[in-house]
Amino acid sequence: MSRLPAALTMIALLTPLLLGACSSTQTETAKSDLNPATDISTAAVLSLACSGCHGATNGAITSLDSRSAAELRGALLRYRSDEDGGSVMHRMMKGYSEPDIEAISAYLAGDVSE
């Protein structure tokens, strides 16, 4: 009788770990295959996090509406490479690859056609 709860506990603990290991490889592959000029849906999804703070209606933080792709890309890469930065932007950019940043920059600048 005591073996069943122990087995169920073990399964409950290992399942998320195993699923996470399987899905992370798939996600990295999908991100690295991104072509910002042709994949607007992926670029839009990657850019969703930006709109929470930088949306036109927020007003608390600068809007990104008038920024060029090159300007956005440069800023995002600086956030990602700055080891001493402690802002939210520094932490967020650590999770994006260079192709991700290319896609986000192009999408936010309106350089991606639908």
UniProtKB/TrEMBL annotation:
MF-aspect GO terms: electron transfer activity; heme binding; metal ion binding
Cytochrome c domain: residues covered: 32-112
Segment forming the signal sequence: 1-21
Record has Signal as a keyword: yes
Keywords: Heme, Iron, Metal-binding, Signal
Name of the featured protein: Cytochrome c domain-containing protein
Organism of provenance: Hyphomonas adhaerens
Taxon lineage: Bacteria, Pseudomonadati, Pseudomonadota, Alphaproteobacteria, Hyphomonadales
